[in-house]
Amino acid sequence: MSRLRRWLIILAATILSLGLLYVVFALLFTEFVVDLWWFQSLGYGFYFWQRLLYRYVVLVGFSLLFFLIIFANFWGARQFVGRAPVAETEPASGLRRGYRRLVEYFCRQSLTFCLLFSLLVAVFVAFPLFLHWEEALLYVFAPAAGLQDPFFGRDVSYYLFSLPIYQLLLQELLLAVAFIFLGVGLLYWRESRLLAGQGLPLPWGAKVHLSLLAGLIFLIGAWFFILHRHQVVYDPANMPLFFGPGFTQMRVIVPLLWLAIALLLAVAVSFIYFLLTRKGLKILWLAVALFLLALGALYSPVLPSLVQKYIVAPNRIVRERSFIARHIEATLAAYDLARVETTTPSAHCPGTSAPPNFRPPCATSRCGKRKSSPRFSGTSSPCAPTMISSPWTWTAIW
Questions:
Q1: Which of the residues 57, 197, 206, 384 could staple to 80 if both were Cys, CB 3.0 to 4.6 A apart?
Q2: What is the pTM of this model?
Q3: Is there a cis peptide before residue 350, judged by omega within 30 degrees of 0?
Q4: Cβ contacts of 369 within 8 Å, gap of 6 or more
Q5: Strand order in the sheet with 387-389
Q6: Is the pLDDT of residue 386 over 60?
């Protein structure tokens, strides 16, 4: 009887479990199954699976890339930490004994530690790409637009597909590399302290490794300023006259960005030189001070406002003429209005006189002759196509 009761309980639990699984499956996968059937009925079953799995392909691909980079750094650090024999001449303190145990554990479990830590950081860095997987695919596969922006000569597809991904990756890359640099730098610093007590220098390979990581951080910082330079094309400061960069942005902001990049690279070179030789500290501080001054001029509104007020505003049409022309050129290209004819104004009938700004109606000319069509194709007639007037030219759009 007890066995029958036990089997009944097992059977009831199994049925209840299956029922719960059915409910969970129905709640979670009903929409999935319906979408799959609908796409298959339209002949797009393969596209359905592509759209579903592409995000994971992006996550795995970029995670693998970042994993290899991070793992290579920690594997390199393993070659120089705890390798040199250091004899203790006096009883070791608790802090030193703890560090020695940490180094010994790191050397014994280095492969496991490097694999796990590198994998975690790689997934962390690649996860934003998983959330923006469509943008990532467009970055990889999108073709060139065939149109170049009139300011920097970049293809328009760069601003549509590449620049957003670069901005997305910049912060995560800087955080990951800075964390690696601090972790590896701490290990090398403690190792150098222990070796210095025995009169031994830190291995040259460790210094080179730190120098490469520091140089990578500075290069990412320079990349930030380069992306900032390309973002100038979205500057709305000149609205409503025109959209995009003007005199102040191209003659003040962009040169300051190049100056900041040059000074940042000078800081990088002087810092790496000091890291390798322990010399040139004054040059390093001088480069840092100049870089901070350039940042102040770049992000402070004082200099751009002074240039706008005392150089641009008194004669704005002359200062901004070339930038307005580029704006018009980009707008015409965007709306596929390349078939535009620009002519000098001729706003009167032959044999008559008229003011320079006179614009006759399209239906009837001053000569009293009625035109059969407002879209007359002759450019010599005042009743030719509609003219867009400006202080310099009239533009006829056919």
A1: 206
A2: 0.68
A3: no
A4: none
A5: 340-343, 394-397, 387-389
A6: no
- Hey, what amino acid is at 106? F
Burial class of residue 286 (count of CB atoms within 10 Å of its CB; 0-12, 13-18, 19+) = middle
Pairing label, strands 387-389, 340-343: unpaired
Please measure the distance between the N-terminal and C-terminal CA atoms of the chain and give it in whole angstroms: 97
Place of tokens 């059969």: 372
List the single range of 26-35, 77-86, 200-209, 314-323 with lowest mean pLDDT. Answer: 77-86
Q: HEC string of the chain? A: CHHHHHHHHHHHHHHHHHHHHHHHHHHHHHHHHHHHHHHHHCCCHHHHHHHHHHHHHHHHHHHHHHHHHHHHHHHHHHCCCCCCCCCCCCCCCHHHHHHHHHHHHHHHCHHHHHHHHHHHHHHHHHHHHHHCHHHHHHHHHCCCCCCECCCCCCEHHHHHHHHHHHHHHHHHHHHHHHHHHHHHHHHHHHHHHHHHCCCCCCCHHHHHHHHHHHHHHHHHHHHHHHHHHHHHHHCCCCCCCCCCCCHHHHHHHHHHHHHHHHHHHHHHHHHHHHHHHCCCHHHHHHHHHHHHHHHHHHHCCHHHHHHHHHHHHHHHHHHHHHHHHHHHHHHHHHCCCCCEEEECCCCCCCCCCCCCCCCCCCCECCCCCECCCCCCCCCCCCCCCCEEECCCCEEEEC
Q: Which two tokens stand for residue 119?
A: 């994998």
pLDDT for position 351: 54
Q: How many CB atoms lie within 10 A of CB 66?
A: 23
322-356: pLDDT as tens digits? 888 888 888 887 787 767 676 776 655 555 555 55
Amino acid letter, residue 289: A
Angle, helices 254-277/204-230, rounded to nearest 10 degrees? 180
Interatomic CA distance for residues 272 and 270, integer angstroms: 6
The pLDDT, as a whole number, for residue 6 is 73
Q: Which amino acid is at 393?
A: T
